[in-house]
Amino acid sequence: MTYTWDFHSIWQNFDLFWFGLQVTVLYTVGSIVFGVLIGIATCAARLSRWRFLGYFARLYQELFRCTPLLVQLLWFYYAFPLLVGVNVDNHFAAMLTLSLYVGAFYAEIFRGGIISIDRGQQEAAAAIGMSPSQAMWRIIAPQAIKRMLPSFINQSVIQFKNTSLISVLSVADLAYMAAVVNGQTYRPLESYTVMALLYLAILVPVTQLADLLEKRMRTSD
Amino acid sequence: MTDLARTNDAAFTGPVLQAVNLSKNFQKLQVFQNLSLDLQRGEVVALIGPSGSGKSTFLRCLNMMETPSSGQVLYQGASVIPSFRDRGDQIGIGTLRRNVGMVFQHFNLFPHMTVLQNVCEGPISVKRMPKAEAQALGMHFLGLVGLAEKHDSYPSKLSGGQKQRVAIARALAMQPGVLLLDEVTSALDPELVGEVLDVIRTLAREGITMAIVTHEMAFAADVSSRVLFLDKGRIAAEGSPDEIIFNPSDERLSNFVSRTRN
Ligand SMILES: Nc1ncnc2c1ncn2[C@@H]1O[C@H](COP(=O)(O)OP(=O)(O)O)[C@@H](O)[C@H]1O
Ligand SMILES: [Mg+2]
């Protein structure tokens, strides 16, 4: 099979890719920030003395961890508005769903990190008069963060790739823009290859950095 | 009384720390019933007894690390309530623990902080002491336990004996009115026990009020003014080291002491 690659028309549309890439980064970073906040709250609820809070948090986590992200996106955009009787903006639905999705996973990563810290640390902090929240932020969290960093980065890398699904809600992310370019140029091979390369170009440095970070942390123990 | 033992309420003359009819049970398990103890200022009390007799649990009730099932803890005459904050004349767990330090069998140093940061953490984040002042204080107590030159090391680089001495300095840096020590040499290699016991002897000489759980009978006899023998959740014998350790009258006590002494 002989195929003549032709990137000319792709370069002409590079501004579309560039725009899409920015949208992808925006949704990734945005959903990571909201996801961390949701994750902290959910983790706190899971570890709380109030049982019902824990059950509630658990229910949320199971819903979002055990259904596909694509299904969640469709549900929030098409089903949820019928339930509440208000139209939901597609950008809002996309950001909300992405954040809730990643937050459920982050919560589990945070919880795992915190409960892996020896109980004696909490006791030693309490013994010098620290309040539970001081003990958490000064003593437990710094140690837990170090331990959970690799899984956190891993989940965030997955999140970056997962944002491609918001194209089904017509959010103009990288995947959506690749389809647009393809529609204009009839060059699917080039369009989708450039898209894949752009994902790679962002994530390879991130995973390299993560490996480096992990190595540095292991030596500082 | 030396500088080390001075607390903010040196005028108070009653018992520094009191346990009044403390009982503790874990669900169905009754650990101890109606234990009372008065700790006078400058006094060193040793708690001895077989494993599982409730020594740790009793000690942990004294700083509310365990909540007593009934009875009361009083610090300088003020009763302690099981909330973190003070309420009226009653003091909360936070105030109690600022004044009643504890050293653990397994050190529990903060591994992400240097030795000096470990020691300064309480003064800085709990007492809100300015950093420079806290560091000077920290270096003073590190000097006292003989580890000033290790102030920049991380705990993972220290021997067990050094870790425990840092843990003692960390507790002292809060300048507590009372220090609780729970088998602080039990996790140490035999050759490292001496250096830790020596530090505690120094504290006793300096007039630090202490309650010490220990299996080291010679040390208990040497450092304490009063020994309590805990057995099956009650105080089975109480008296001077001479009466309890060297001339035990009670049969279970004399068995226990002779088994542990060598
Ligand atoms: N957190 C806990 N939950 C249930 N039982 C406990 C707990 N802590 C201690 N115990 C029990 O209480 C008893 C006294 O324990 P402890 O105070 O550690 O004794 P000692 O320090 O004298 O060896 C033991 O039977 C122990 O198993
Ligand atoms: Mg014990």
TrEMBL record, chain A:
GO terms for biological process: amino acid transport. The chain crosses the membrane at residues 16-42, 63-80, 92-110, 165-186, 192-213. NCBIfam families: HEQRo_perm_3TM (TIGR01726). The complex is composed of two ATP-binding proteins (GltL), two transmembrane proteins (GltJ and GltK) and a solute-binding protein (GltI). GO terms for cellular component: ATP-binding cassette (ABC) transporter complex. Residues 21-210 form the ABC transmembrane type-1 domain. Gene3D superfamilies: MetI-like. It is a multi-pass membrane protein. Pfam families: BPD_transp_1 (PF00528). It comes from Devosia limi DSM 17137. Belongs to the binding-protein-dependent transport system permease family. HisMQ subfamily. It is found in: Cell inner membrane; Cell membrane. Part of the binding-protein-dependent transport system for glutamine; probably responsible for the translocation of the substrate across the membrane. One of its GO terms (molecular function) is transmembrane transporter activity. This is Glutamate/aspartate import permease protein GltK.
UniProtKB/TrEMBL annotation, chain B:
Residues 17-257 form the ABC transporter domain. Keywords: ATP-binding, Cell membrane, Membrane, Nucleotide-binding, Transport. Transmembrane segments: none annotated. It is a peripheral membrane protein. It is found in: Cell membrane. One of its GO terms (cellular component) is plasma membrane. SUPFAM superfamilies: P-loop containing nucleoside triphosphate hydrolases. InterPro entries: AAA+_ATPase, ABC_ATPase_HisP-typ, ABC_transporter-like_ATP-bd, ABC_transporter-like_CS, MetN_ABC_transporter-like, P-loop_NTPase. Pfam families: ABC_tran (PF00005). GO terms for molecular function: ABC-type amino acid transporter activity; ATP binding; ATP hydrolysis activity. PROSITE patterns: ABC_TRANSPORTER_1, ABC_TRANSPORTER_2. Belongs to the ABC transporter superfamily. This is Polar amino acid transport system ATP-binding protein. It comes from Devosia limi DSM 17137.
